[in-house]
What we know:
The protein has 9 helices and 13 strands. It has an 8-stranded mixed β-sheet with strand order 1-4-3-2-5-6-13-12, sandwiched between helices. A 3-stranded antiparallel β-sheet has the order 7-8-11. Strands 9-10 form a two-stranded antiparallel ribbon. Helix 2 (about 40-50) packs antiparallel against helix 8 (about 215-230) and helix 3 runs parallel beside helix 4 (about 95-105). It folds into 2 domains: about 10-55 and about 200-285, no CATH class; about 55-195 and about 285-320, Vaccinia Virus protein VP39 (Rossmann fold), CATH 3.40.50. The mean pLDDT is about 95. The protein is about 40% helix and about 25% strand. The protein starts with a strand and ends with a strand. The chain is α/β, with parallel strands linked by helices.
Amino acid sequence: MQMPAFFPMHRPDDAALAAEAASGLRADAAWVSPKFFYDALGSRLFDAITELDEYYPTRTEASIFAQHGDRIVDAALGMSGPRPMLVDLGAGNCAKAARLLARLEPRRYVAVDISVEFLRESLIELQRRHPQLPMAGVGLDFSRQLQLPGELSDGPALLFYPGSSIGNFGPAEALALLQRMRVLAAGGALLIGADLVKPRAVLEAAYDDAPGVTAAFNLNLLRHLNRLLGADFDLRQWQHRALFDAGRSRIEMHLESRVEQWVRWPGGERRFAAGERIHTENSYKWTPAGFVQLLRQAGYSDVTQWTDAQAWFGVFLARA
């Protein structure tokens, strides 16, 4: 059995990350990038969120692939050609792409995530199940840079970006990322998931569940900052807030100070008034027509879409 190749193109720089986090905390309206959610505990908490009754995106997208999978694969092969390279962006445990491999029969599978070590175990296990399929893991922060090693760039690709991660980017950022994806696909196609607009009550419950798992996920960001910055956040003095901004068509997550307090870290400090917030995440929700328009603006053509019966989630295929 061949073994996957691994390319650690992104090397974490704790000093740079700490400076980025501190800069956000010092801003007039404090904010912290959602990438700071994902330490080891944060990743496990997010996995738990996807199992909650209130959190519809994961199971709804899965239902679309279960119902329309053969048609989606046939259409993807029609756009990207037989045996495309499958590039899985934000691959995580590779489970979503794994369901497509037998149908697609790609010439190569490339799993991309910010940490190549995070990919290693999952990719080795997947290689055992597909011993003849060349595989590679690429450690890359593709939100900033999207370029594969030269030896992996050999013709059209089917880029796979499932879930609702595109929603973490504002419209201008999403457009720029989709344009970079189009270049990488090299005449192939993009298969992407996007969360759609729906009733406020459904949206807010998905990000503020009754068991409090999302609240724990959000608060764990402060624990991560305590380690990264040497800060002294007291998690007991903060609470989770999630709200839908209909004007911007986005869910916002915040951490709200319960009391007036000072937070300090080496080289910096910030006074928070009672009720003052740290903005930790946006999750934009699209109409189907709006997302098709975004894809066309990014230079894609021949857009096809599939949704669930309630039109809560969309899977879009577009020619690059």
